[in-house]
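Example S7 (C-alpha cells).
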C-alpha cells in the first residue's frame, strides 16, 4: 500500500509516511476542518496533480482482485 500511494501521489515513501503521521497526529493542532472542507481539499489536490481517475479506478480494482 505504501508503494502504491507513493506512486499515486508521485512522492517518496518517506513523504507518504510523513503525511500519514501528520494526519494521525492532527498536525499538532486542533483541526476545525469539516468533512466537506476535506473533500474540497482532496478534489483540489486531484485536479492540481491531474490524476487520471479512470486509471486509478482500474488500478484499485486490480489490486482488490489480487488480494482475494
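Recovered sequence:
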Amino acid at each position: 500500500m505504501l508503494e502504491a500511494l507513493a506512486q499515486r501521489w508521485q512522492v517518496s515513501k518517506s513523504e507518504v509516511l510523513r503525511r500519514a503521521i501528520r494526519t494521525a497526529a492532527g498536525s499538532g493542532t486542533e483541526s476545525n476542518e469539516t468533512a466537506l472542507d476535506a473533500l474540497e481539499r482532496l478534489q483540489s489536490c486531484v485536479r492540481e496533480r491531474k490524476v487520471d481517475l479512470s486509471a486509478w479506478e482500474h488500478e484499485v480494482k486490480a489490486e482488490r482482485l489480487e488480494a482475494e
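Notes on this example. The longest helix spans residues 35-49.
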